[in-house]
């Protein structure tokens, strides 16, 4: 099937030709006609499958046909909720690109930056609004955004919304929109909590599930290294010096871990930058731009900060810390090996992460190669490292003064 066969508006097809988009991805092929027909949908599809275009294109198509093109002040007809600033900006940019040859106006609002420019844009009137939940509610409390005319409500990355604690905000926003509207929910996974949310906000939705990319993508070479936790830095440096080259994202579980690794790599003269939730929007966008423009070749990130980053021709992913959710591993490595390019992933597993590795291997059906020949192997009998607090050490069979202190009774 081609995009032309989906009967999209000519102005949309013109832009798709310029972008060299010929054939829709499976999620686009199934979702676009369903949305155009006016159905609510719940879509389960992984990162890198083309989800954004699967809701952006039909929304633009419908609005071109139905929106009032007079000089009246524009009202928000489509609302897209995104969990992160980076993803919101990316979605907004995609809407603007696809609707280039129309009169539709798209804008984005998010926290972590001045609210004044966003107020000015909203006052001028827009057709499509992409927003993060917190900033949208702030604007609504100030009577600066009117959701009374919303016809299509999109909840993107619903599983991430849940993990970030935004579900209550999402429900509030959904109730601020008209009861009669089309609702679209997109999520990488559909756990029971997402099913419950879908039952609350969707009306007889059509379900679309796209097979996981790891069953289709053989262009990513996956390697797993068992390594003591204190030796992960050394192993990372060893791989960067001898094996891993090019444009690289390194994932760490915490913001503290991101900062710590960045300092280590900078001391070793690597061109590196980082993103995480504690950094300002300006700092995060600057880091992304430096990485995309190849001013630095290594970007260190947490999963939440990196969700939605769209970077072409990423050479490798290093999982410095294994994710505790197996599906998150798929999200991470899915950023490399795209569009027919070869990619690679290198994952470090300490003793305490062995259960995570087992779950990931099971999900990936054993396609990950375990590398045993490296300078910092993990003792097969090793137990998780225990980091004792100061004052809890034992000396010559006697407890330290700190450990002798009478314990408080918590009852």
Keywords:
globular, 16 strands, 411 residues, 7-stranded parallel sheet, 2 domains, Rossmann fold, alpha/beta
Summarize the structure.
With 411 residues, the chain is α/β, with parallel strands linked by helices. The protein has 2 domains: 3-211, Rossmann fold; 214-370, Rossmann fold (3-Layer(aba) Sandwich), CATH 3.40.50.300. It has 16 helices and 16 strands.
Weakly predicted, low-confidence segments: 387-411
- Structure classification: alpha/beta
Q: How much of the polypeptide forms β-strand, as a percent range?
A: 15-25%
What would the CATH topology of the largest domain be?
Rossmann fold
- What number of domains? 2
The total count of strands amounts to: 16
Q: What value does the average pLDDT take?
A: 86
Spatial sequence of strands, sheet with the most strands: 3-4-2-5-6-1-7
CATH hierarchy: architecture of the largest domain: 3-Layer(aba) Sandwich
Name the CATH superfamily assignment of the largest domain: P-loop containing nucleotide triphosphate hydrolases
Can you put this structure into words, describing what you see?
With 411 residues, this protein is an alpha/beta fold. The protein has two domains: 209 residues, Rossmann fold (3-Layer(aba) Sandwich); 157 residues, Rossmann fold (3-Layer(aba) Sandwich). It contains 16 helices and 16 strands. Strand 15 and strand 16 form a beta hairpin. Helix 2 packs parallel to helix 3. The C terminus is likely disordered.
